[in-house]
Write a structure and sequence with these properties.
Elements lengths: L3 E6 L21 E4 L6 H10 L2 E4 L9 E6 L12 E7 L7 E6 L2 E6 L10 H11 L3 E4 L5 E6 L2 E6 L14 H16 L5 E2 L13 E8 L2 E11 L5 E11 L6
Parallel strand pairs: 1-2, 2-3, 7-8, 8-10
Antiparallel strand pairs: 1-12, 4-5, 6-7, 9-10, 9-11, 12-13, 13-14
Length: 251
């Protein structure tokens, strides 16, 4: 069975920081799952060019961004001219809060995550995964990468593709993420979960990240791309890998 590459990304609040464009080549990715907050027509156009199948769900900052041009009637005096605006490019605002796609024998659900209460809570995510009847649940909103297995299901947060700051104001969010990662590894019986490493010199700086899913049958190999910065300020892209197999624990 041929494998399929699925790009998962979220929270592109700052399109000028689209630092991963050089790593993504059109024609190699079969499907893109965008987990909300695609707030730029240029980013939407790039993703449409990257893969023919672009799936969107509603985020909490989706707005109808449109590039416009202003035109005036040259026959009218300047003081009486009536400028009009014409849209050049825009993208549709998604309305679905969640979606489910199927690759191989895996059902993959995805949502932005603002409907998950408390945000990023592993028990709330497990309930959502059961309600959607999925093997893999992707969610966003926290702007921080996280992946773990719990009770036979795989949970993935791709983080923010542009490293956007998190505006939740919840100081316990980072602690909750760390707890859920270790908890998922213990209860899931699979590989221990892990999350992004924050900059020691700038703990408020989120690490830009996205993930690629290589799906073949009942096996999913997750490739995590993160822009990391060393102590001298030099940036480089790090890639890590984690695997998930459906019913690996015999459930």
């Amino acid at each position: 069975m041929a494998s399929r590459l699925v790009l998962v990304l979220s929270d592109l609040h700052i399109p000028d920081r689209a630092i991963f464009k050089k790593l993504l080549t059109p024609g190699k990715i079969a499907q893109i799952l965008c987990l909300g907050n695609l707030t730029s027509p240029s980013a939407y156009a790039f993703l449409r060019q990257l893969a023919p199948d672009l799936q969107l769900v509603k985020g909490d900052f989706d707005i109808p961004l449109t590039n416009t041009t202003t035109t005036t009637n040259p026959q009218q005096p300047q003081s009486q001219s009536n400028p009009t605006t014409a849209p050049e490019a825009s993208y549709p605002i998604p309305t679905a809060l969640s979606k489910v796609v199927t690759h191989g024998s895996l059902r993959i659900g995805f949502t932005h995550g603002d409907s998950i209460i408390p945000p990023g809570d592993p028990d709330a995510l497990l309930i959502a995964a059961r309600q959607m009847d999925v093997d893999v649940l992707c969610w966003g909103g926290t702007h921080r990468f996280e992946a773990y297995e719990m009770e036979g299901k795989f949970f993935v947060n791709p983080g923010s593709a542009t490293g956007a700051a998190c505006w939740s104001g919840d100081e316990d969010l980072t602690g909750a993420s760390t707890t859920s990662s270790s908890r998922g590894g213990q209860e899931g019986g699979g590989e221990e979960g892990f999350e992004d490493e924050q900059d020691d010199e700038d703990p408020d700086r989120n690490t830009p990240s996205f993930v690629l899913m290589d799906v073949q049958g009942d096996v999913l190999v997750l490739y995590v791309y993160q822009l990391k910065r060393d102590k001298e300020g030099k940036e480089s892209v790090g890639v890590e890998k984690v695997s998930f197999r459906k019913n690996a624990g015999g459930n």
